[in-house]
Amino acid sequence: MISEQMYPNIGHPERAIISQVDRAILSEICTLSCLNSKLSAMSKSTPQIDLPGLQLDRSSPTPLHQQIYTFIREAIGDGRLKANYRLPATRVLAGDWGISRNVVLLAFEQLILEGYLCSKTGAGTYVAACRSDDLPIRPAAKASRPQSKRAELTTYSLLRRASDELISGCSVDREAIQPFQVSVPSYRDFPFSIWSNLAMQVYRGLHIQHLGYDDAGGYWPLREAIAEHVQVNRAVRCTAEQVVIVQGTQQALYLAGSLLLQPGDPFWMEDPGYQGAVACLRAAGGIPCPVPTGPAGFDLDYALQHHPNARVVYLTPSHQYPLGGTLPYPTRKRLLDWAAQHEGWIIEDDYDSELRYSGRPLPSLQGLDQAGRVVYIGTFSKTLFPALRIGYIILPDASTARLFIRAKALLDRQNPVVEQMILARFIQEGHFQRHIRRMRQLYKTKQTWLLEALQTVPDQCHTSASDAGMHLVAWLPTHLDDRTVSSELATRGVTAPPLANYTLAHRQPPALLLGYSAFTKDQLETAVATLTAVLRTQDSIR
Ligand SMILES: Cc1ncc(COP(=O)(O)O)c(C=O)c1O
Question: Which residues line ligand 1 (CB under 6 A)?
């Protein structure tokens, strides 16, 4: 690019015609200037690397400059030195290695001549941007090095067993977001401009004390903001001392499992239920006792009769995951009585209760607890976005909270503080409440779109409207296998997890989970058309 600054007369009427010579000069100036600006930009933005690992052997018959040359060439060849890395100054290297600068210069000149390095006075020496086919052949010494046996993790620890099982039930690999993926907020509707403004303010006002270790329980103003939010919106009874900030529900469950269970302890688990929970409690050594959970909620009688020794129960009482019901009041009361009498613990996963579209908001189970036996878990993964990795545990009192805080410190010391500061402001300034209100409206509309689209397949699957959440359950004709239907859909670009993936011991009729919160009307309609086509083929196969 030619700029007027570089050649001020260009574009001027008197110099409208540029001679051949001018052009040649211009092109030269331009090339040099581009190179200069490129190199000076590079010197600002590219990392300067040291050259660790070079052992000069003064007793070797190979001259020192040759040793330096070979070392750098091999490092470029095997990718340790990447294109555009800036090498230390020859003077510095000579000083570090205790040799004459001329020796280093000799090696560098050779490397520049061969195109491995490039240099410009004043800007330093860089690794050239080579094509892969230009790279030197890997040194013979490396190729002939005996192949070491690949390290294999043979221990089959509790953590490994639990995570292996989780992966077989649900993929933890990165998947493209496609309908009907469940639990995905509408990222497009997140107020990023507000968030980034707050982030800027937080960074500008960052005090050096924020760069050190913070309280492992979390950033205090965020704990206060959460305490206030859950008191008002979820009827949770707590103060900020009882709130522990964690990296999402997953870490909360890992901590709760590790602190409430001893290896071999049975725990009641909703069936069908959240695989992430069963895996965490299993990893802590707990033995899952699946309890049938249907439209009437958690079957407490079954639990008491079949697994009377359990002292811990995992529940999603406000919006059962994945079926979507709410735990009736009498069962809540009985569960709390059971916990109080047997010194049991109720882990209440209140993952998406803010996303309730109609009916009265249901108070949390924690709010009814008189005996301090509920460990309440909340997350921002559904209301904001999961990559934030902020969730919270609310313990019955400050001293139990301190036990969790100590364990949290052991796991990862603390959550990153800047995100907590941004989130605290987001809540304090009312953006969180406004966003939730908008998302409730939006998700309700999206659910209606999905229900309308599903009306075109009335005989093949039935589903009904839900007062809350981000997905619907579509019940399939009983002769179909939901895993087969789900796999077939996956080959056609539709993700609809089968209910079978969420069951532990009690078989459910075949059904698919249809997430709607992240998708447009068009996407939902197209995916429903694919579902119809797949169900027709499955029927004809019969
Ligand atoms: C039942 C349930 N609880 C909690 C979560 C959120 O987990 P996290 O806060 O670790 O992102 C999910 C996510 O899908 C879930 O389904």
Answer: 183, 248-250, 274, 316, 321, 349, 351, 379, 381, 386, 391
User: Where exactly does CATH 1.10.10.10 map onto the chain?
Assistant: 64-127
Give the span between the Cα atoms of 59 and 37, in whole angstroms: 43
Q: How many CA atoms lie within 13 Å of 73's alpha carbon, on the beta-carbon side?
A: 21
Give the DSSP letter of residue 136: P
Q: Which residue's entry shows tokens 């809350």?
A: 468
The H or E element containing residue 117 is strand 117-120
Q: Do residues 404 and 243 lie in contact, with contact meaning Cβ atoms separated by under 8 Å?
A: no
Every domain range in the chain assigned CATH 3.90.1150.10: 434-541
pTM for this entry: 0.80
| CATH annotation of 434-541 | 3.90.1150.10
Reported as a single tens digit per residue, the pLDDT across 123-179 is 889 998 764 445 554 444 444 455 566 777 877 788 888 887 775 445 555 556 899
Instruction: Among 166, 182, 183, say which to mutate for ligand 1: greatest number of ligand atoms within 8 Å of CB.
Output: 183
d(CA 521, CA 498): 22
In the chain, list all ranges with CATH 3.40.640.10: 162-168+190-430
| Backbone torsions φ then ψ of 24, nearest 5 degrees | -60, -45
- Residue with token string 């200037």: 33
Q: Where does 162-168+190-430 sit in CATH, by number?
A: 3.40.640.10
CA of 214 to the centre of ligand 1 (A): 26
SS3 assignment, position 515:
strand
CA distance 521 to 453: 9
CB 390 within 8 A of CB 396: no
Specify the CATH number for 64-127; select among 1.10.3080.10, 3.40.50.410, 1.10.10.10, 3.50.50.60.
Answer: 1.10.10.10
